[in-house]
User: What shape does this take?
Amino acid sequence: MTATQKILVFLTCAIGLLSVLSRWTVPGPADPDAEADRLYRFELAEDGTSYILSGLKDPNLEEAVVPAVYRGLPVTVIGSFAFSSCEKLKTVILPEGIRIIKAPVPSDSPLLRTVVLPKSIEQIGENVYSEHDFYELHLRYLLYRGSPEDLDPALLERYRSLLYWYAEEQPEEAGRFWHEVDGRPVIYSTGDTQLQFELNRTGTGYSVRVLPGDDLSEIVIPDEYSGVPVTEIAEGGFRGCAELKRVVLPKYLQRIGDYAFAHCEQLEAVVIPGSTLRLGAYCFAYCGSLKEAVVPGRVQTIGEYAFYQDSALREITLEEGIRNVEQRAFASCSALKTLRLPDSVLSVGNPVIANSDALTELYLPACAVAAYSSTPVLHACPSLELLVIADSAAGFDGRSIWGGSVARNHVRDLVLPSGLEEVVNLSAVGAERIFFTGTADQWDFLVLTDDESMVHARNNCPYFYTEQPPEEAGRYWHYDESGDPAPWPSEEERLFFRLNDAGDGYLVSALPGAAMGDAVIPEQYRGLPVTAIDYYGFAGCEDLSSMQIPGTVQYILDGAFARCTGLTEILLPDSVRYIGKSAFRGCTGLTRLRLSETLEVFCLDAAEGCTDLRYLVLPDSLQQILYTGSRYIKDFAYEAVVLPAGVTGTTSLRAVEIRNLYYRGSEEAFEEEMHEPEYMKAEMHVFYYTEDPPEEAGNYWHFEDGIPVAWPQE
Assistant: This one.
């Protein structure tokens, strides 16, 4: 091969090699937009000059470092749902240029602890009244790339407890400062590996908070730091320490700041030192494992929502000496059974407790019940059995308890002190039994009024206190071995009679503690007819197995047979014209309720909770259906309700989930007489009465042995 040929072969090989190499992509500088597209979603702003970060694409992202520029334009806004659906997100770093964070609450991002804010930030939330707030998170550190002077005063005030300030070098004085190490935010330590201390303005004490890092299960806070007492748990100081189970607080502690231990989900117990003067707002909120707590008497104020949603809290002791308890301090404590506010409390924020299904006993100070407030002391506590008013109370307004909403709330026993000088609106409490610590003469003096709101006080004659067993049968009570109020039993009589307001008849009730069994009510007492079953007259008589009601009784008043679980049937005489609310409430054994043929008024919730009552036959004599509540009535098992023609109050039937409505008239009459026939047809299956088999198939019914039965459809 000649030299020329060798050169040609070499050139051919070189060209071929270059052709192969040209097929490979040579790595160049990373494309920031491509990386941003992989991690984030952006929307172009309406004016086309900037971008909005609208979401994250990677649900497993632990750290979001938001770019300052996307496709040549600045990123200036964080959208409302930008960080939602990111369960593993721990840190968000926002660049300079971000002006607005529309809604900083990713409720499904439980691990988020740190957010870095740029100096350019101007607004957080849609507006100043926004419900979306960093405080709704488990967030612990809000790191600002500037000093307090650089931040908008409104934001400074709102997020003071979360904010840390940027400093390139370690500050000479302890405080909340941070810097960056290899691009990562780091908080300056004050010499302790776990805790950070900050001297107060007077130089007399330190506040303390936990440093970022691995969550700790146990922390012992020293009594002093640098020879100065530790007097405060900083606002948000241990917020979101999800693994913290035990904390030992310093003995010189004076204040537990707002949100101090909020969202410490594993915290089981805490001992608050006797030196403490204030518990801040939300200080132990969302501590789902906290089972018990003792608040010492030196505490002047328990802040709002202090123990909010502590679902495991079974016992809390509030010592005498506490002065102020702010609103909803114990709201949504679903396991709490007893709450005793000491008489030393001078102000109560209403409601002080709400949405607590297990609460059975409540002790209120004089300040909580003396006057009507538009917001009541408690809300949505359906299991309340005992309500005790402090002995020092001089005035009592029943609306202060429930706000006058009797239909929604109920209390079995109410204890009122003998020192009362004024009682108003007692009916708003809706108590089954009233235990008065004074005498009958004192009670009569209190309730001498024509005010309709006091009808419950007159009609529900209370039990009067006597320390020793009474010599005569009557309505007397004492404190039993457990400290609860209890009627004195009587072996001589089972029934108690009370003269009505007109003086022409008696109301009858069970004598406290008497064994009822098969009860028979006489037609007369002392020469006058027995005309009514008294308000809550036989309520709670679980051993009552049957009741013979005479033909003189015209009224079955409110709660008359409530919770008589041993009753299986009630046959009312034709003399009964009125059945009040909750008359048979909670009679779980009741399978038959025969209403009188002269009944004129029937309260719709009379049989609430009668879970075995299959049929409700309302007679033709009925003129009005009453409904006293605004909520749906629960625990009915009606297969059918028979509705007479021409009755008023039929729209209230929407409060009961009725499957089959048997109307005593024709379809034409139903369309003409019913106030809202279309809604009733939509809500329930409506049948129309015909005594003989119908000629055509359709929704028709008749009686068989007193039971409504649908005619067969072909």
Remarks:
- The chain has a mean pLDDT of 83.
- The CA atoms of residues 518 and 546 lie 5 Å apart.
- Helices lie at 3-21, 32-39, 153-158, 399-402, 440-446, 455-459, 667-673, 677-683.
